[in-house]
Amino acid sequence: MADHPYRNLPDSAYWRRAVAAKGAAVDPLVDDFPRIGRTDKVATAGSCFAQHVARHLAKSGFNYLVTEQAHPIVDADVALAAGYGMYSARYGNIYTTLQLVQLVDRAYGRFQPVEDVWIGPDGKSVVDPFRPTIQPGGFASEAEMRADRAQHFGHVREALETLDLMIFTLGLTEGWRSKIDGAAFPLCPGVAGGVFDPTAHEFHNARTGDVRAQIGAFVEKLRAVNPRARLILTISPVPLAASASGNHVLPATIYSKSALRAAAQEAAEDLENVFYFPSYEVITGPQARGHFFADDLREVTEEGVEHVMRIFLRHAAGLEAFALGPAAAATADDFTAGVAQWVETMCDEAMLDGENA
């Protein structure tokens, strides 16, 4: 029998052996993956799914980097509702790579958007357009918001300059930006503050090349202040809550995730110390048969999150953190109790749903 390149590949290269035979328990990581030491400072940012990563890292005893913390006397639930500890700094959900790049530039004073203050839905409170939901009820005044933002930028710089590893979860290609200077908003103006103006605001659906270029720009800016920094990219498996593209939300979701996935792969292959972790494939792949989605087909179940983090910690730290199946709930106990509700309330994008808009 003639020899050929497919004859002696490892089991991971064959669908029947690596996927069909494994079912939902498949572990799709085969390439080298960065190891995380207990003292390594690990920062997180991205879409709401990234909040799971942060919580599990902290739960597993790793050095989860949080540079912006609430005052010690503030109740833990109140602090969380205000975005403290959700990520490494109080920047809220960062859904697009353009937001990420602009956050760095704003933190270092290289970009000052023209539209940088909104009035809240109540007509009185003040909202930060780039963190529209981190202050419940809004700020009391523009001065208070600007003082908080200045302090926030200092914590962002601290995180970027001191982290050893950053995990960024890419969420969306769709977004809204200013026609004046291209400033990217995490939410469409008018949803959580501000007033939508078609002459001032425009919809943008990033192409794969846009995302890849923005990942490269972020890595360059990060390495300029922290040459040793490593970056892990992952894709949120959570579908779009709504699409302004004019397409049905299902193909709009597939486009968005596909573009992000392709860009992340290219970045991991092209850039030094940039890696990809397949959380998207673990949750949405056919081997899962939809098992890891809640009834709304958007929210990822507790079991799905634990499976993703079990794979992550196995490869990043040699740690078997959670067991897949019914034992998972007992293993995680109070840490995972109420996770689905917590994530839903912390996802700004859910505000775009027709029932909530």
Topology:
Blueprint: H1 15-20, E1 42-46, H2 50-59, H3 76-81, H4 97-107, E2 118-119, E3 126-127, H5 142-162, E4 165-170, E5 174-178, E6 184-185, E7 201-205, H6 208-225, E8 230-235, H7 249-270, E9 274-277, H8 279-284, H9 302-317, H10 327-336, H11 339-346
Parallel strand pairs: 1-4, 4-8, 8-9
Antiparallel strand pairs: 2-3, 5-6, 5-7
Helix pairs in contact: 4-6, 6-7
Structure description:
By secondary structure, the protein is an alpha/beta fold. The protein has helices at 15-20, 50-59, 76-81, 97-107, 142-162, 208-225, 249-270, 279-284, 302-317, 327-336, 339-346; strands spanning 42-46, 118-119, 126-127, 165-170, 174-178, 184-185, 201-205, 230-235, 274-277. The N and C termini lie far apart (63 Å). The model is unreliable at 322-345 (pLDDT under 50).
Which features does this protein show?
357 residues; 9 strands; alpha/beta; 38% helix; 10% strand; four-stranded parallel beta sheet
| Poorly predicted residue ranges | 322-345
By DSSP, the count of extended strands is: 9
CA-atom Rg in angstroms: 20 Å
How far is the first residue's CA from the last residue's CA?
Answer: 63 Å
**Strand order in the sheet with the most strands:** 1-4-8-9
Could you tell me the strand content as a percent range? 5-15%
Biggest beta sheet attributes: 4 strands, parallel
Order of helices and strands: HEHHHEEHEEEEHEHEHHHH
- Average per-residue pLDDT, rounded, comes to 89
Structural class: alpha/beta
Overall form: globular
The number of helical runs is: 11
| Helical fraction | 25-40%
